[in-house]
Amino acid sequence: MGKGAGTVITSLFSQYPWYVLWSPLFLFLLILISWLYYKKILASSLYKVSFRHYGFFYGAMLLLYIVKGSPFNLVGKDFLFSAHIFELATIHFAIIPLFILSVPVELLQKIFWHYRLRKTIKWFSYPWVAALIFNGVLTIYLVPKFFNQIHGHSVLSFISQTILVISAILMWWTIIAPLKGVGKFSYFIRVSYVFLNSLLLMPMGIFLILSILYPHYTVYDASGYRLFGEMNGISDQQLGGALLKALQLLGYGTALFYLISRWGKEEEKEDENIRVVQGIVIQLPERK
């Protein structure tokens, strides 16, 4: 951020009270949710939980506090567009899939036992529907005209980010497919779906790198530099575009690695259960 970054960070801590910088109420809420998760899920005998459930949930909670409860949130809200993009990408490409993975299958089955709810998420999590909804909503959100209007009103900002979270849950549900009877698609479709999602967001990533300024973040001092260090508005936005693509590719790359590895294991398992006797293919029962 340049030689002035240290001074600006010091100024940030001196201008705002500690409770604005560190959001103790938000921290308390996350601690309460973590305690309920442990009490009702991890410590319960109703669900099969493993170490990965612990890791996914508490990793998601830690990331959520860093981007929404620490001073980083204030930087992204009022000073750096790239910090806001980092927050946005972390929530939608890391925190949400971790939350979905942290919920035991038995609990998900209980939640989606209701026929109408199961039918609704089946429809909205259909690959092409979910892809268009998530990428369409995120693209509209990042269009400068809408973005600056949204960030000028706290209610609009809350509503738009809530819609983004819901659409991201539908998108990741299709990829992860935690329940067999609700939005479960073949590995081929899910791998193709990941590639489609990465392509649909590419125009917005290119758009951000082409130096189209966002007035909400273009506040300059007398020397022509951003008030947050020596990063001007153009380089800030270009960094934001690069971060969006990098975190998107990291999230989707991890998903692809998981899907392809699981796909290979299932095919090996199927081959082990097939025998050919006098030209007749026999499917043996699965080993338990």
Keywords:
globular; 14 helices; mainly alpha; two-stranded antiparallel ribbon; disordered N terminus; 288 residues
Give a description of the structure:
With 288 residues, this protein is an all-alpha fold. It is 72% helix and 3% strand. It has 14 helices and 2 strands. It has helices spanning 5-15, 18-22, 24-42, 51-68, 71-78, 81-102, 105-111, 115-124, 127-142, 144-150, 154-176, 187-200, 202-209, 233-272, and strands at residues 274-277, 280-283. Strands 1-2 form a two-stranded antiparallel sheet. Strand 1 (274-277) and strand 2 (280-283) form a beta hairpin. It is globular. It starts with a helix and ends in a 5-residue tail after the last strand. The relative contact order is 0.11. Mean pLDDT is 82; it is low at 1-5 and 220-227.
What topology emerges from the helices and strands here?
Elements: H1 5-15, H2 18-22, H3 24-42, H4 51-68, H5 71-78, H6 81-102, H7 105-111, H8 115-124, H9 127-142, H10 144-150, H11 154-176, H12 187-200, H13 202-209, H14 233-272, E1 274-277, E2 280-283
Antiparallel strand pairs: 1-2
**Strand neighbour order, sheet with most strands:** 1-2
The topology string of helices and strands comes to: HHHHHHHHHHHHHHEE
Mean pLDDT: 82
Q: Assess the beta-strand content as a share of residues.
A: under 5%
The radius of gyration over CA amounts to 22 Å
Shape: globular
Helix content: over 70%
**What is the number of helical segments per DSSP (H or I, 4+ residues)?**
14
Largest sheet features? 2 strands, antiparallel
Broad structural category: mainly alpha
Q: Report the end-to-end length measured between terminal Cα atoms.
A: 57 Å
